[in-house]
Design brief:
about 190 residues; alpha+beta; Jelly Rolls; 4-stranded antiparallel sheet; 9 helices; about 25% strand; globular; cNMP-bd_dom; cNMP-bd_dom_sf
């Protein structure tokens, strides 16, 4: 996915502003299994997924719990590192060979001060991420497991081919055995 598409899906900017942002980006490629962000480290850079998929997980009682999944067009960021210069509580691992755009926080903050359109894009990005987190939380708290699975099938069916079932199960807040039962009932 081109960076213009990624940026404009949040907030359409004039070409001049987009060009300023593009000049601060670096394109990188990493293999499947690469940890873009690591638990306990301060990560200030922001990554946009051009190609690939990533999962964010944390360890609870020795088990990896996937709490977020991003694919083409998504943004990888450690909010604790970005906002507070604190070590992150998450690890973000690439689940496929991936191509990312990298943007340094320092450069982005400079752009926020110099360009109102880029600042509005940042505000809109934060609003949309907060809304997505709220919707996910409400779903996890109110929907039964089979409903969450059906919602995943409806909204992101490709994740079933791109992620291991164990990651999908923890993302849905269920065990792998429960996921297998739900899938068997659907067939």
């Amino acid at each position: 996915m081109d960076i213009k598409e990624i940026i404009n899906q949040r907030y359409a900017m004039p070409d001049a502003s987009l060009d300023k942002l593009r000049q601060c980006l670096t394109e990188v490629s990493y293999p499947k299994g690469f940890q873009v962000l690591e638990y306990g480290k301060i990560e200030k850079d922001i990554f946009f997924i051009k190609k690939g998929i990533v999962r964010a997980y944390t360890s609870v009682e020795g088990k990896e719990i996937t709490f977020w999944v991003g694919k083409e067009g998504a943004t990888i960021v450690s909010m604790k590192g970005y906002v507070n210069d604190e070590p992150g509580y998450e690890t973000m691992e690439l689940m496929e060979n991936s191509v990312l755009y990298v943007l340094e926080r320092k450069k982005l903050k400079e752009l926020f001060l110099k360009d109102l359109h880029i600042a509005n894009w940042g505000r809109r990005y934060a609003e949309m991420e907060l809304l997505a987190a709220e919707e996910r939380l409400i779903s996890m708290l109110s929907a039964v497991a089979s409903e969450r699975y059906h919602e995943l099938l409806e909204k992101e069916p490709d994740l079933l081919q791109r992620l291991p079932l164990g990651s999908i199960a923890t993302y849905l807040g269920i065990t792998q055995a429960s996921l297998s039962r739900i899938r068997a009932q659907i067939k």
